[in-house]
Design a protein that fits this description.
The chain is α/β, with parallel strands linked by helices. It has two domains: about 1-230, Spore Coat Polysaccharide Biosynthesis Protein SpsA, Chain A; about 235-360, no CATH class. The chain contains twelve helices and seven strands. It has helices at about 15-25, 45-55, 70-80, 100-110, 130-145, 160-170, 180-185, 210-225, 235-260, 270-295, 300-330, 335-360; strands at about 1-10, 30-35, 60, 85, 110-115, 160, 195. Strands 3-2-1-4-6-5-7 form a seven-stranded mixed beta sheet, sandwiched between helices. Helix 1 links the parallel strand 1 and strand 2 (about 30-35). The radius of gyration is 27 Å and the shape is elongated. The two termini are about 40 Å apart. Bound molecules: guanosine-5'-triphosphate and magnesium ion (MG). Magnesium ion binds next to loops.
């Protein structure tokens, strides 16, 4: 049996055209269709539910409070009954006439069968130069990470056999837009992948969801499955925020100390106050940027943000103590001054990050 997943977000206008056409193409093929909708504002789910009333093989999964193409497809696959699991865009861009071929290819040799724009006979249709170039560069970058290499790893039109999917499922990274790429990165190298050419059409109705955010998520995905296995992306972001924080710290120090100066000199108390004040300004800045960027998935609001801010201050204070303790210990044991300071600073950063990840922005 073929289970066809149609992920949708604002495709209410397209479904009434698309679904009857798919039924025609799949006439005689044992199949089910699962629309996975992320609670679209245009009520795609309602249109699909109405159509499902008189179409027994059509099912609707409406996800509330969730967004994401990859995770929608994975959930569709998990709810499916078929031994072959397929996915196709719900905007008419994928040539549904090749669905039976895709299905047959997986039935014949298991693994994957991909509707391909870049294999011989396929085409991207009417893309402008810029989109074509972006797609080619992204494809080249992605290919370097794939265990199984094909000409169009970024296609959203493919099928996989249930056994291969279930085997690879626990390793998938549902972030982002490119579920096929994620499968190609994680399947065993010997997995067979067949490419079937098609020409990419224009959308029937509606707008593309391929936003700048989706493109950044793609780069984050590439990082996650390569260097990110050893150094988490969140840690890198945390360090970047920290680096900007240092600039803020120095600037705040200069501002405050200038204001406290008497003539050309500053008193010891004035200096101390400037350092403490600048430190707190940097802490506030770091907390704010980490909250909206580094830990955006665990972002804190309202009273939780206030509690989180206090925890962040605590973690930073202990981080500073850890930094001091390690530097002082190394220095007193004969380590060169600068090396002791650098290792101490690193200890402080790793301490800060770990504590804040564990207690302030819990996963
Ligand atoms: N469930 C769900 N579906 C989504 C989401 N984002 C996109 N989709 C659907 O996934 C399919 C592909 O999205 P598109 O916006 O067409 O992306 P694209 O085909 O790569 O880009 P275009 O060529 O510009 O259309 C469409 O059927 C969308 O409705 C999402 O967050 N959740
Ligand atoms: Mg599309």
């Amino acid at each position: 049996m073929l289970s066809l997943i149609l992920p949708t977000y604002n495709e209410a206008e397209n479904l009434p055209e698309l679904l009857p056409a798919i039924e025609k193409v799949l006439k005689g093929v044992d199949h089910e269709i699962i629309v996975v909708d992320d609670d679209s504002p245009d009520k795609t789910w309602e249109v699909a539910q109405e159509m499902a009333q008189d179409q027994g093989d059509l099912h609707v999964l409406r996800r509330i409070g969730r967004r994401g193409l990859s995770s929608a497809v994975i959930e569709g696959f998990l709810a499916a009954k078929g031994d072959v699991l397929a996915v196709m865009d719900a905007d008419g861009q994928h040539d549904m006439d090749i669905l039976p071929k895709i299905y047959a290819a997986v039935q014949k040799s298991s693994g994957l069968a991909v509707g391909s724009r870049y294999t011989k006979g396929g085409s991207v249709g009417e893309w402008d130069e810029r989109r074509y170039l972006m797609s080619r560069v992204a494809t080249k970058m992605a290919l370097a990470l794939c265990a199984v290499k094909i000409s169009d790893p970024m296609s959203g039109f493919f099928a996989i056999d249930r056994k291969t999917f279930e085997e690879v499922m626990p390793r998938l990274n549902p972030k982002g837009f490119k579920i096929l790429l994620d499968l190609l990165v994680h399947v065993p190298e010997k997995t067979k992948a067949t490419e079937i050419p098609f020409t990419f059409s224009s959308r029937i109705h509606g707008e593309s969801k391929l936003s700048a955010k989706v493109q950044i998520e793609f780069l984050e995905y590439l990082y996650d499955v390569s260097i990110g296995k050893y150094i988490p992306l969140m840690f890198v972001k945390y360090c970047l925020v920290g680096a900007v924080g240092v600039v803020i710290h120095v600037s705040a120090f200069l501002l405050i100390s200038n204001a406290l100066k008497h003539g050309a000199d500053i008193t010891f108390q004035g200096f101390s106050f400037s350092v403490i004040g600048a430190t707190e300004v940097a802490i506030i800045f770091n907390f704010w940027l980490n909250n909206i960027w580094t830990f955006s998935r665990e972002r804190l609001h309202g009273v939780h943000m206030l509690i989180g801010f206090l925890k962040f201050n605590g973690a930073c204070l202990f981080g500073a103590l850890a930094n001091y303790a390690v530097s002082a210990f190394l220095f007193s044991n004969g380590t060169a001054q600068l090396l002791a300071v650098v290792i101490g600073a690193f200890t402080g950063v790793i301490w800060n990050y770990t504590m804040n990840r564990l207690f302030t922005w819990r996963a």
